[in-house]
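Hi R.,

Here's the input for the 4'-deoxy-4'-aminopyridoxal-5'-phosphate complex you asked about:
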Amino acid sequence: MTYQNFSLKQLQTMDAAHHLHPFTDHKDLREAGTRIITRADGPFIYDSEGHELLDGMAGLWCVNVGYGRKELAEAAYRQMQELPYYNSFFRCTTATPVLLAQKLAQIAPEGISQVFYGSSGSESNDTALRLVRHYWALEGKPQKNIIISRHNAYHGSTVAGTSLGGMSAMHDQLGGAVPNIVHVMMPYAFELAMPGESDHEFGIRAAKAVEDAILEAGPDNVAAFIGEPIMGAGGVKIPPESYWPEVQRICRQYDVLLMLDEVITGYGRTGAWFASQSMGIQPDTITTAKALTSGYQPLSALLVGDRIAARLVESGGEFYHGYTYSGHPVACAVALANLEIIEREGLIERVRDDTGPYFRQVLTERLAGHGIVGQVRTFGLMGAIEIVKDRQTRERFPGDGAAAVVVRDHAIAGGMMMRATGDTMILSPPLIWTRETIDMAADRILRALDLAEADLRK
Ligand code: PMP
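And here is the predicted structure with 4'-deoxy-4'-aminopyridoxal-5'-phosphate in place:
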């Protein structure tokens, strides 16, 4: 039985009857009905009614090699036939997680050569939190367990992921976060820089907030700082260049570990394997997921720095943590094939040298001057468009994000899948986009902005 046996109406009825969607207002969804995506090819997705959409979000920031890669399906098929599952507990493992760990050690930033697997970014952030606290306990400093994060950060939706993240609406529904996590200001100059403050000065001030939090808690009580190199779900917030070097300097000064969440920025999106390499950051852990398999299989990998790994090995004693699917052989087989595609097709170099700069040029030249656009910013193939009522004062339209939803709805109706977070439109396309695809996206976004402006100024 396949979906073709059912009409859209039937699928929507079953969906409404039984399926609780993630991050969804269920009352609203059941009134509106669901769009059902049934197939995809290259940069395009298609719904059950045959509408073609250019996927500006690579699924959910993950389908970096684009859709329809038979090679990845074949890698999964071969592995499933040979060995669909075995675990990595009890002194066992399977071959593909071993090969993948070796590969990840090769491409990871210097000083990072170990991997702990999970099935999602959230799971790997749970691992990261437990691992850094365990590290300090092994160092004889169990009280050094506070983790500093940022407001509006997104680190996943498990209890630890939500606690690490800085989304207040998520915290409000948590009923008690994991203790000893504090949040400081985000490096978001567009809204938070003071009049006359340069980007550079703002970046230093935002980093100073990390130092203030360390000093307030006492450096002997602070285990780590965690951050996305570029905040993704929070609105593609690209920090000033001064921010990360200063955060890193501060972490070193107080012997605070630096945890990077590269669930979005990992595996080519910024024009390097990892944003830490694009930005010159040397972290102690890197959380990765999503594009590790280009979303073709659920898999995450926490990349662990040698300092932490050496302590685990030297001290010995069990680390009581792991998942049934840690190092799933099928997911790891697909990851290996996916990394091979990224390398063979030179997708990272293409983003760095060609499509990344072109993406910035086109979005800046064609969209930044639009009547409801307050700022355009990009980094590699990540982009943000700030929607404002007044370009001079950066005043927003009323309704707290409602304006961006108007833009998004016009974009989708016009064949452009993109996302709205707050008053920011965001883009994170597959790395296979060409100059032509970027032009096509700009055409469609411009049309959506025009239609939205007409609606919003009515
Ligand atoms: N960290 C970041 C930076 C993310 O963007 C996400 C997902 N969007 C996660 C963690 C959580 O990943 P997952 O949804 O796979 O649990």
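One thing worth noting: The longest helix spans residues 435-456.

Cheers,
M.
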